[in-house]
Amino acid sequence: MTNKVLLIGAGAREHAIAKAIVRSSNAVIYAVTKNNNPGITALAVKVFREDESNSSRTAEIAKKEGIDVCIIGPEAPLAAGVADALDKVKIPCFGPKREAARLETSKAFTRDLLVKYKISGNPDFKKFASTEGVAGYAQELLDRFGGFVVKPDGLTGGKGVKISGEHLATPKDAEDYARELVSSKHDSVIVEEKLEGEEFSLQAFSGGGNCASTPLVQDHKRAFDDDVGENTGGMGSYSMADHSMPFVTQSDVEQAQKINAFVAQALEKEFNEPYVGVLYGGFMATKNGLRLLEYNARFGDPETMNVLPILENDFVELLRKACDGSIKECDACFAKRATVVKYLVPAGYPSSPVAGDEVKVDAAAFDERDTQLFYAAVNEKNGVIKTTKSRTAGVLGIGDSLEEAEQRAQNAVCGVKGNLRYRKDIGTQALIQKRIEHMRKLRG
Fold first, then answer.
1. DSSP secondary structure letters along 347-402
2. Which partner for 399 in 4, 119, 242, 405 could form a disulfide, CB atoms 3.0-4.6 Å apart?
3. Residues whose CB is less than 8 angstroms from the CB of residue 259 and which lie 6 or more positions away in sequence, other chains included
4. Residue 294 CB burial class (10 angstroms; 0-12, 13-18, ≥19)
5. Mean pLDDT computed over 138-160
6. pLDDT in tens, 297-354
7. CA–CA separation, 302 vs 363, rounded Å?
8. CATH placement of domain 124-193
9. What is the DSSP string of 19-73?
C-alpha cells in the first residue's frame, strides 16, 4: 500500500524531509509550499503553491488527495493551527496542535511548564507584561550572575534575543528594549540570567508521551567566521560520529534526553492528549550543569540536514508510530557517521541580502551518499534558480570522521555557483577545539 505523505514547507529543512520520505518504502510526496523549491518539486508527485499557514485550505487538500499522514516543517503553520484543522478531518499529523506548539511560540509558556511540572533546566527568569520592574530585575541578575538576557515572548526567527555585554550595556537598556517589544507585537517579555557555556541541539520524535532521540547537533548562528557578526537563522552545523558532542559529558546527554521525555509527558497532562511532533531542545552545558535555552516544536534548520540523511529506519514508519503513540526511544537508529552542513547565503546576508541572483549547481559535486545539496529559500522559474533575501542552500558532507565530513562539505560547496558566501570554519577542528577549551576552563 502506498503512503501518501503531505509535506508542508518550502525550505532546506523540508527538502531534507522530502529526501527522507522518498527513501521510505512505498511513500509518495504531496507538497504545500509557498516557493517553488526545485528540490521538493523534483521529488513530489503533486505540488500546491499555497499559503503554508492556511489551515482550512491545507485540510481541504489533504482530504481531497486521500493523504495518509502529514508532516509540518516550519513553525508558522503550527502557530496557525494547521494540525488542528487536519485533526478535524481525521488525518494524522506529525506536528503539534496550536496550543501545544506554544512550547515554541511562547517562551513564557515553556518556562512556566518546567516550573509547574518540576522539570530541571530552567535558568532564573521572570515574565513582564510591561516595563515595570525590568531594570530592577536585570540589575539583580547582573549582580548575581554577571549578566542578563531579554527575550520577546513569541516567534522571532531566532533573532529577537538581546544579551547584556553584547547588545545591552545597562539594566536601563533592558528596560528600553522591553518597552520596544511590548509596544510592538509582543504581549510580554522574559528577562533571565545570562548563561555561559556551549550550546547543542537535541531533537526527538515524540508521540504518546514517548521520545526517540536523534544525534546531538551544534548549530552556528553568527553570520561570519570565528562566531562574529549578527545572529542568523543558522549558518551551518555539525554532528559527530558517536552522536554526542566533544564538549559535553554523558550526564549532559542523559539529562537532555530526560528533560525531553519529561516535557512530552507534561504536555500530555497539560492538554489531555499526546504531544505529536518534534521536541527540539536547545540546551547549554554550563559549569553548573545543563540548562534549557528554548524549545522548538519542529525540526531545526539546519539540524535536520545533519540527522535525517543518516537515519537508518523507515522515516514514514517513524511518523506513523509517533502519530499512533507507539514510538519508543529505540525506534530511531542512525549510522555512526559524522556530518557537516555549510549554508550558502546571498551576498549581504543577513543585514542587506541581495535577492534575484541566479544560482547554478554542478550536480556532479553531489553523490547523495557522502555529499548532498538542500535548496532553501530559492525560487525556480523556467529552469532558472534565483536567490531570495533568506538563506539559499545547505551543503552536507558525511564521513566516518568529522574531518572527512568537513572536507567533503568544503569540496561540495564549490559545486554551487552564484553571488553567495558561507562560513568556512564550520566543522573544522580549530573551531571545535575552541569549544572544548571553553568548557574545560568553565568546568575545570
1. TTTTTSPPPS-EEEE-GGG--SSSEEEEE-SEEEETTEEEE-SS--EEEEEEESSH
2. 405
3. 119, 120, 121, 281, 283, 290, 292
4. middle
5. 87
6. 999 999 999 999 999 999 999 999 999 999 998 899 999 999 999 999 999 999 999 9
7. 21
8. 3.30.1490.20
9. HHHHHSTTEEEEEEESS--HHHHHHEEEEEE--TT-HHHHHHHHHHHT-SEEEE-
**135: how many CB neighbours lie within 10 A of its CB?**
18
Domains 124-193 and 197-433 share a fold: no
Topology of domain 3-98 in CATH is Rossmann fold (3.40.50)
- Separation between Cα atoms, residue 301 and residue 282, nearest integer Å: 13
Residue (of 301, 264, 220, 250) closest to 117 by Cα position:
264
Q: Which amino acid is present at 190?
A: I
Strand 378-381 and strand 338-346: pairing?
Answer: unpaired
Q: Which is it for the CA torsion 294, 142, 286, 256, positive or negative?
A: negative
Cα angle 66-72-73, degrees, rounded to a multiple of 5: 140
Give dist(CA 406, CA 423) in Å, integer. Answer: 12
Measured distance CA(159)–CA(181) in Å, rounded: 13
C-alpha cell at 411: 569540496
- In this structure, the dihedral spanned by the alpha carbons of residues 6, 10, 13 and 17, taken in order and rounded to 10 degrees, is 30
Quote the cell numbers at residue 354: 541581495
**Non-local CB neighbours of 127 within 8 Å, separated by 6+ positions:** 108, 111, 112, 153, 188, 189, 190
Q: Which fold has domain 197-433?
A: D-amino Acid Aminotransferase; Chain A, domain 1 (3.30.470)
- The Cα 227–Cα 110 span in angstroms is 28
Segments making up each domain of the chain, as ranges: 3-98, 124-193, 197-433
For residues 231-243, one letter each, b for 16 or more C-beta atoms within 10 angstroms of the residue's C-beta and e for the rest, the string is bbbbbbbbbbbeb
Q: What is the pLDDT of residue 157?
A: 61
Average pLDDT for 139-166: 88
Sequence letter at residue 295: Y
